[in-house]
Amino acid sequence: MSQVELLSPAGTLEKLKIAIDFGADAVYGGVSHFSLRIRSGKEFSFEEFEEGIAYAHARGKKVYATINGFPFNSQLNLLKKHILKMAELKPDAFIVATPGVLKLCHELAPNMPLHLSTQANVMNVLDAKVYYDMGATRIITAREISLRDLVEIKKELPELELEVFVHGSMCFAYSGRCLISTLQSGRVPNRGSCANDCRFPYEMYAANPETGTLFRLEEDEGVGTYIMNSKDLNLASHVKEILDTGAVDSIKIEGRTKTSYYAAVTAKAYRMAIDDYYNGVNDVEKYQYELQSLQNRGYTDAYLISRPFEKHDTQSLDFTMQLGTHQVSGQVDERGTHFLCKYKTLPHDELELVAPLDAKIEMVDNEIGTIYEREGRVYMKLKKLIAQNKKVWDEVHSGNLNPITLPIKLPPYTFLRIPAHPDMGTYPKV
Fold first, then answer.
1. What is the pLDDT of residue 219?
2. Which of 285, 342, 369, 380 is the most exposed place for a label (fewest CB within 10 A)?
3. Cβ 350 vs Cβ 357: under 8 Å
4. pLDDT tens digits for 59-106?
5. Where in the chain is the domain with CATH 3.20.20.70?
């Protein structure tokens, strides 16, 4: 079996480049039409998506185009045109969600590999074989599937590639098939415009239909308010168990609507975990250090390792989002010579540098600042905040759009971060 693929989200051209630079073997994204992230997908034009494909291919990486929406009859002619136009861009596969779209793609783009979306809810050998016989070359299995069932599918269909989610937002509904957003705001999740209504706080009421009585149920503080809010998936501590099965061809990170920093850190953390696995190493603390720096809803290892009825910690009842251990304070530009401030930055602040794994950063001490290493991590302190226009600032904030000069050229899209909490580094194990 060849080495497992690391598949990262690409919501924009910049995020595509960042994910690839930070370790992804492949990325997935799409132009707005018929993508389940249509609201974020609008940030990709056809021209930008074509540029992203060229960027990936020049580096030996792959791009999978999402055409995984659920079309209405009135959209079918537009869908056919979209399939043909996307095929002209020469991505490495289409991701589709329904049997009809799968068949249509096979007819219009017969040489295009077809990946079946997790929205198809494949949980067993029977369903996997049906889609395989229809032309699917890979199945992105349901999030509710177990490792044992993955092994059984691979045993029965060894030529069928299997892809599993290992990180990102979880939906309380079965494989994301939810209509709550449609009911409350008219935004249809399975056509790409989910309003994330499951993340909202709700009050509970009891009604007696015979008397017309309605009263609010009092709740203990912190219990039951976010009743549909799932924790985020985090399987970095279980990469060895997953790869030991030999059944998984690609591990996938959710998050096309997430930040550029998220794209970088998740790609880097899982790249480390995969590379370590093939080198006989398993340093869970190292991977979690990076992933815990991200904003999250609390983490869970969900259902791949444990059965659903064995899990009682997948719900985040008392909050919708929490800070990670770190705050992003800056992002280096594509040239590597300046950074844009993302938070308050002062001279002599200690800023940790988050760069791609293979990056070579020179230790320097000059009139602009110092870059140094401590305990295996690289840090920077700026003596002066000098903008590209030569203006010197006493401090800069996230609203300041002036690029700030770096002491030395850094890898493009390197992130600068600072601890977000005094007790940074103490976090729950996943």
1. 66
2. 285
3. no
4. 999 999 999 888 889 989 999 999 999 999 999 999 999 999 999 999
5. 5-169+233-305
Q: Residues 340, 401: contact at Cβ < 8 Å?
A: yes
From the options 3.30.1490, 2.40.30, 2.10.25, 1.10.1740, give the CATH code of 326-419. 2.40.30
Between 3.20.20.70, 3.65.10.10, 2.60.40.1180, 3.40.630.30, what CATH number should domain 5-169+233-305 receive? 3.20.20.70
Residues of the chain with CATH 2.40.30: 326-419
> CA 112 to CA 108: how far, in whole Å?
9
d(CA 194, CA 181): 6
Token output for 211: 């008397």
CA 100 to CA 141: how far, in whole Å?
A: 18
Q: What is the pLDDT of residue 148?
A: 95
Query: Token digits for 239?
Result: 């990469």
Q: What percentage of residues in the chain have a pLDDT greater than 90?
A: 67
- DSSP 8-state class, residue 217: P
* Helix, strand, coil percentages for the chain (3-state, nearest 5): 30, 25, 45
At 294-337, the pLDDT tens digits run 998 888 888 888 765 555 566 555 555 677 899 999 999 999 99
Distance in angstroms (rounded) separating the CA atoms of residues 125 and 113? 20
